[in-house]
Design a protein that fits this description.
3-stranded antiparallel beta sheet, alpha+beta, 2 domains
């Protein structure tokens, strides 16, 4: 038999593993569908191949600021981080350390090695990490709410946030999901 590549071929494979058509398998089609749903849910929740790391671009709305959290899609199962919101090294800040380094021409990359520049930028990043730090986040996938532990009034409506998250792979698009560890599929039947 070929590898399962659809819901129906996976269902047929599971029934064959139970002895069908030689043995009569007395289960209703709805029961088989329920077990397949459970199996795919378990696979997408707990197997690393059932998810994908993505960057989600979110435009801040006034309701996000009012609510104090950001609502994410149902497919998101976990959030790793929110990319830097641009605090101490924000390019529009006149007193930005990076801006001052460039303004004073401390590093002319056309005339010298870029190693001192990279070292200085790493040092600036370390200082920012020590004194500013990362914004702590909390995410509950059952409520689909991402809480960033900061005053959301610091954000403006229509600002963009980049969220690093893990999302479920949709079985309609990725037929390889049906060919996952076959052993786990018929344990639920």
């Amino acid at each position: 038999m070929a590898k399962p590549n659809s819901r129906q071929t996976l269902k047929d494979f599971c029934l064959r593993q139970l002895g069908y058509p030689v043995l009569e398998v007395n289960v209703d089609d709805d029961q088989v569908e329920d077990r397949l749903d459970d199996t795919l849910q378990l696979y997408q929740d707990y197997h690393y191949d059932g998810t994908e790391r993505v960057l989600i671009k979110h435009q801040v709305t006034s309701s996000d600021i009012t609510n104090g959290y950001i609502t994410l899609a149902d497919a998101v199962i976990g959030v790793s981080r929110v990319l830097d919101l641009g605090q101490a090294v924000q390019s529009s800040n006149l007193f930005n350390i990076r801006y001052q380094i460039h303004l004073n021409d401390l590093f002319d990359l056309s005339a010298a090695s870029y190693v001192p520049y990279v070292t200085a930028m790493r040092h600036v990043e370390t200082l920012e990490e020590l004194f500013v730090g990362k914004k702590p986040i909390r995410y509950n996938r059952h409520r689909n709410q991402l809480h960033i532990d900061m005053d959301l009034d610091e954000l403006d409506v229509d600002d963009y946030l980049m969220v690093e998250a893990y999302v479920k792979l949709p079985s309609a698009t990725f037929s390889e999901i049906f060919n996952f560890s076959i052993k786990s599929s018929f344990h639920f039947l």
